[in-house]
Amino acid sequence: MASIAEDPNVAIPNVHSLGLKGVLGYAPPRQMDSYAGRVHIRELDAIALSNQPVRIMVMAITGTSATVKVLIVINLYRWPEFISHCLQFVGGINLSGNRSSSLPLTVSAIVDRNHPEQIEFGWNDPLENSFVPITSLPTEYEGTIIINHNYYGNVNHDESINIDEINGTSVSVGSHSTSRVT
Predict the structure, then answer these.
(1) CA distance linking residue 155 with residue 22, whole number of Å
(2) Do 32 and 59 form a contact (C-beta atoms < 8 A)?
(3) Averaged pLDDT of the chain
(4) What is the span of the domain harbouring residue 38?
(5) Residue 46, burial from CB neighbour count under 10 angstroms (0-12, 13-18, 19+)
(6) Which residues of 152-180 are buried (b: 16+ CB within 10 A; e: fewer)?
(7) Nearest C-alpha neighbor of 31 from the set 17, 44, 15, 42
(8) Does residue 123 form part of some domain?
(9) How much is the pTM?
């Protein structure tokens, strides 16, 4: 059974209220723990009224005494300029009540040679020394290359990557764990 948010009678007015023409696809809802609190994420790709493709990330961050809902809407052709700054801002929200807000926050990108069509982004949790995956964004959209990346080396040896700049993000080679929008 579809949730109320996926009911066409509810979804169409919601899409229009966001300034969108329509939804192209969506990723399964997911949740994870991070230093910001418990994060619930829903992503979808849509066409804005300006006919530009956009990725919408709806994030609800729940903590011990509050919940914050964050909506990130980013142009799919221009995400390398903005995604790191958006995720860094959201990651700076601390609702967990037990962690220092003065910890340095970094956003990382993971390029997976098995999934060259996307790049995964997430937060580096300084307390747990772990990576918290948040989203995957396309390297190409409808034939337009958004970002170039090439691998050097092979899977049994050290690898390096040559990639166009993603503002404010460190990039590494690894495996993806988030679902892409379909």
Answers:
(1) 41
(2) no
(3) 77
(4) 4-171
(5) buried
(6) eeeeeeeeeeebeebebbebebeebebeb
(7) 42
(8) yes
(9) 0.77
